[in-house]
Design brief:
By secondary structure, the chain is α+β, with helices and mostly antiparallel strands. The chain contains eight helices and 20 strands. The structure holds flavin-adenine dinucleotide. Flavin-adenine dinucleotide binds next to α1, β10, β18 and α8.
């Protein structure tokens, strides 16, 4: 049976960042590290279905992994983009408040300060009119360190760098079952090629579960693993609509986040090509589906009109949707990232990541460093 030292399940931005981080730390080359992806290419799920925003680290509960890793991950990500010529822009973001929401803006600023983010700046109505004439609001907070990124280019760079260092990348390879051994794991996979599927089993000393929306399913496929520590999965879908016509904004425009803790609210984000899109909304769903109901354009326009009054529903076209792998149910306080070591539950060499929702793209390099530290690599 083929033997590897480390197997990473899932080539989304988290699995790829971990592969890259391990490849940097490995002294003897990485030919014994393998990253498996069930799809024909990397990053086909949540990692290519998001706002592509480099978050500043504003909103998250103080002391959580989200708060810490967003702040440190943001710096690492900007540096990586610079080092490897990845498309990105410190475009800035405005969180806009209508008349009765100024206290909410203050609270956001205090939370950001508590999290160690000290660069938010207050903007009054007249300055706001000059900065963003198309926006209607009474005041705003400006976040100068918020940016946008070409997420595909970023993932491509991570994979290329890891492969250059010797990491083996196996697309079309789905993990079906994991059988713990005295030391390490036997991993049963299905490799697909056209209409053919072949079974392939190998041994890995350690196993990292970075399977995103399928992280719980992969955990459940580990023979004899305690079911207790596997957090529940709550799928929370977010749709995006693109705006036809020239983008009227210079910066990203966000409303005050709704009090429901599910999301940051339907915001205006601009991609590296200058295309404006609005989203994501929030809807808890029972199974993965990425369809968008085009009739929702009217509902979106009504919400967006709060800060962009000239919006018309017929300027909005369904773009794409993404699904947040939440570990808490609707109505519960926001969950944190979970990075769980198997040895705490009697299974050495196992590390599993759950609840990798926003801001995990921003935090990805910091998450990868934490994973490598906790594996003592
Ligand atoms: C609507 C939305 C907006 C967001 N906006 C932002 C943002 O602006 N900024 C930000 O920082 N974050 C954002 N995020 C969060 C970010 O996109 C995700 O946290 C991140 O992409 C998660 O990456 P991942 O690698 O964990 O998951 P994924 O990208 O889903 O990767 C997991 C991979 O595992 C593979 N896999 C699953 N099961 C198996 C198996 N059995 N065998 C082999 N492979 C398997 C899958 O095919 C997949 O490719 C957003 C998320 C959503 C949903």
């Amino acid at each position: 049976m083929d033997k590897f030292e480390i197997c990473i399940v899932g080539a989304g931005v988290i699995g790829l960042s971990i592969a890259y981080e391990l490849s940097k730390r490995s002294k003897e080359g990485c030919s014994k590290i393998v990253i498996l992806e069930q799809e024909s290419s990397f990053g086909q799920h949540t990692s290519s279905r998001n706002s592509e925003v480099i978050h500043a680290g504003i909103y998250y509960a103080t002391g959580t992994l989200k708060a810490q890793l967003c702040l440190s991950g943001k710096e690492l990500l900007y540096q990586h983009c610079k080092n490897f010529n990845i498309g990105h822009k410190r475009i800035e973001k405005l969180i806009v408040a209508q008349g009765n929401e100024e206290n909410d803006l203050q609270a956001i600023r205090i939370k950001a300060e508590e999290n160690g983010l000290h660069d938010l700046r207050w903007v009054d109505a007249s300055e706001l009119r000059q900065m963003e004439p198309a926006v209607r609001a009474q005041s705003a907070l400006l976040s100068p360190s918020t940016g946008i990124i070409d997420s595909h280019g970023y993932m491509e760079s991570l994979l290329a760098l890891a492969e250059q260092a010797g990491v083996i990348y196996a697309p079309r390879t789905k993990v079906k079952k994991i059988i713990p051994q005295d030391k390490g794991f036997d991993v049963a996979t299905d490799i697909s090629s056209g209409n053919l599927t072949e079974s392939y089993m190998f041994h890995s000393g350690r196993l990292i579960n970075a399977a995103g929306l399928d992280a719980q399913a992969v955990a459940h496929s580990i023979e004899g693993y305690l079911q207790g520590p596997i957090p529940p999965l709550h799928l929370c879908k977010g749709d995006y609509f693109s705006y036809s016509g020239k983008c009227p904004f210079q910066r990203l425009i966000y409303p005050i986040p709704p009090a429901n803790t599910k999301s940051l609210g339907i915001h205006a984000t601009i991609d590296m090509a200058g295309q404006l899109r609005f989203g994501p909304d929030t809807k808890y769903i029972d199974e993965i589906n990425y369809n968008i109901d085009p009739t929702k354009a009217g509902e979106f326009a009504e919400i967006i009109a709060d800060y962009f009054p000239t919006i018309q529903a017929n300027q909005l076209q369904p773009a794409y949707s993404g699904i947040r792998p939440k570990i808490v149910a609707d109505g519960m306080p926001a969950g944190d990232f979970v990075i769980q070591k198997g040895e705490e539950f009697g299974m050495d060499g196992l590390l599993q990541l759950y609840g990798m929702e926003s801001p995990a793209l921003t935090s990805s390099l910091a998450i990868a460093a934490l994973v490598a530290d906790s594996l003592e690599i």
